[in-house]
Amino acid sequence: MIAPLARVVVTLAVLLGGWQALVWFTGLPRYLLPSPLAVADAMQRQAPLLFQHGLTTLTEIILGLLGGVALGGLSALTLARFRAARRWLMPVLVVSQAIPVFALAPLLVLWLGYGMASKIAMAILVIYFPVTTALFDGLRRTEPGWLDLARTMGATPAATLWVIRLPAAQPAFWSGVRVAAAVAPIGAVIGEWVGSSSGLGYLMLHANARMQIDVLFAAVLVLGLFAVALYAAVDALARRALPWQPDTQPADDSA
Amino acid sequence: MDQIDRVAGASPFRSPAVPLPVAPLAVRVSSARLTYGGDVLFSDLTLTLEAGRTTCLLGPSGVGKTTLLRILAGLAEPEAPTRVETDDGLPLAGRIAYMAQQDLLLPWLSVLDNVLLGDRLRRKRVTPEQAARAAALLDRVGLAGREGDRPATLSGGQRQRVALARTLMEDKPLVLMDEPFSALDALTRLRLQETAAETLVGRTVLMVTHDPLEALRIGDRLHVMTGRPASVGPALTPPGIAPRRVDDPALLALQAELLRRLAG
User: In what residue span(s) does the ABC transporter domain sit (chain B) (predicted)?
Assistant: First the structure.
């Protein structure tokens, strides 16, 4: 039996070893593929720079995530509660998703400027749809027996939504938030690529132009760490919010 | 063996375990009609629920028993010219408690909060008196001390006991039960029938069931619904007071009669 942490370490060590060996044997130049050691060196040298730009991106991601989840949640509740909202807004919502959000990035930068606002808006746009559809689907798939029971108890539609349908939709909602946490960094970085003066996306473009590929790799690594940490945080929150939900994953999977 | 004895031993007559603040209600469904995809399932059907008695409705699947119950529960729209009348002339809406085959417990609420669900849904504050009444009902169905547990920690029989407590908590003049015990194993079912019969004494109850023995144990008036279009047969009234003993010879004789009517 190997501890989960040990397995992660072994996997990482093998991958890094393979990468280092590839660089050694092929002799690829540093500006095409830096070795892991060179990336580690860059991370150490440029730590203050990475920290400063990382902070910008992390702020954008978190604010985007909060805004997107709040907006998506509200939209789903409105759609579930009001028939008129479903009939008028649902088609708009679906069609709006046919437009690639990335195509809007230049427009957002034009409207909201080079600062954080346009990146947060970008992240919100990316997150909004998965959260809305996840929660709305959850709200629509309430166990019919519960709804029957609520009707015989004289519940108003609003009370049924609040007491039964919303709690019952929590698992679906949290799957949506998990997806949101995974795509939020994409929104922020795309926004930074289109036009910014700060953030990891900006740092990547900057380093790329100057052939500092080791710094580019270091920025990607920091972004990856953010994504993993964010996912873990959301997962922990979801477990706390749903203590009643049984984990149906086979037990031998988690060992 | 002790368990079997407990099940078989008829309990002495009890006054209502749960005091009845509302007078029992007599209900009559008449001229009932139901069509499904052009097929007439029943028409001009009559069913009378006597006040304070338990009426059991038996019949094969697909005969329309559950739809009849759902019409009374306000969950299905009655087809014209179906009429539902009460002996006090007031509409039935808001005066029924419903118990289904599934326990319908909300997994995120504690056992106690599940019993109090009706008040939550009607946006009424849960008073300490109400909470105490819910706890007393849980005690009555044999679940004292489990108030704070989540439904997932209970067995199927215990969950259905909570559903029974929730139904009694509603305290309505008419109790509608749709095969409430059919998902339980035989022994658990017998015990729950006992608890149900004891706690529902004095209320008007309509129970839809597939199980002739169940109907004979806890029903006061048994109707068999058969045929297409279906009709409701005359009431069969088993002697004695519910819950009746499973090994009562009179019951076994009546079971044969019921099975004959079901087959016919």
Answer: 27-254
Report pLDDT digits (tens) over A95-152.
Answer: 878 888 788 888 988 999 888 999 999 999 999 999 999 999 999 999 999 999 999 9
Provide, rounded to the nearest whole percent, the portion of chain A with pLDDT above 90. Answer: 58
Q: Which domains does chain A have, with CATH numbers?
A: 39-242 (1.10.3720.10)
User: What is the pLDDT at residue B38?
Assistant: 83
Poorest-confidence range of A131-135, B90-94, B166-170, B212-216? Answer: B90-94
Distance from CA of B40 to the nearest CA of A (A): 25
CA B191 → CA B4, B9, B135, B145, B244, distances in Å?
9, 11, 20, 19, 12
Q: Which of B104, B114, B126 best tests the A interface by mutation, with the highest count of A CBs <10 A?
A: B104
> Cα separation of A69 and A135, whole Å?
10
Number of Cβ within a 10 Å radius of residue A202: 22
> Which of B17, B13, B28 is closest to B171 using CA atoms?
B17
Contact B122 A159 (CB under 8 A): yes
Q: Hey, which of B8-22, B42-56, B243-257 has the most confident mean pLDDT?
A: B42-56
- How many A-B residue pairs are in contact by the CB < 8 A criterion? 58
Report the range out of B16-25, B171-180, B245-254 with the highest average pLDDT: B171-180
**Predicted pLDDT at B7:** 42
**A163/B104 CB distance under 8 A:** no
**Residue B71's closest chain A neighbor by CA?**
A152
Which value, in Å, is the radius of gyration of the alpha carbons in chain A?
22
Q: Which residues of A touch B126 (CB under 8 A)?
A: none
Q: Do A149 and B104 count as a contact with CB atoms less than 8 A apart?
A: yes
Do B108 and A160 lie within an 8 Å CB cutoff?
no
The CATH code of domain B2-95+172-263 reads: 3.40.50.300
Contact A153 B118 (CB under 8 A): yes
| From A143, A151, A168, residue closest to B75, measured CB to CB | A151
Q: Are the CB atoms for A206 and A219 separated by under 8 Å?
A: no
Q: Which residues in chain A touch residue B180, judged by CB atoms under 8 angstroms apart? A: none
For chain A, give the mean pLDDT: 89
- Model confidence pLDDT, tens digit, residues B100-115: 999 999 999 999 999 9
Q: Where in chain B is the domain with CATH 3.40.50.300?
A: 2-95+172-263
Closest CB from B96, B120, B152 relative to A163: B120
Q: Which residue reads 């132009």 in tokens?
A: A209
Global pTM reads: 0.82
